[in-house]
Amino acid sequence: MKFSAVLTSLAISALQMVHATPTGLESAELETLTARDGPGYCCSVYENLNSIVSLNIPRGPDTFIWNGVGTCEIEVTRNPNNCNGWQFKLRPNCNYLTRTVTLGVRPANECR
After folding, report:
1. For the chain, what are the domain ranges?
2. What is the pLDDT along the chain (112 residues), one digit of tens a residue?
3. Residue 54 in contact with residue 109, Cβ under 8 Å?
């Protein structure tokens, strides 16, 4: 293999790696300590008899779609200023959940 071909393939690999790295507010950043401890996020918890799932959701003026458990999606109506008044609604694809479900905002330490 020619030296230039080796360099070209290394450059392409490096470019692909850069594009594969999460940026902005992608889900990988939501899991970092900085995002969890920083302002602008609220600890949201889905709980039923079988599981507890938590996620730090960024504050905002619109509805956030949270993929809760399995294929169940949850509509989260947020408050851009704080974690008060958030509303949670199970979407129709959650019909398979027959047990009691609790949704809400919890203290930040429950999302660690």
Report:
1. 25-111
2. 555 544 455 445 444 544 444 444 445 544 444 444 457 899 999 988 888 899 999 999 999 999 877 888 999 999 999 999 999 999 988 877 767 888 999 998 888 7
3. no
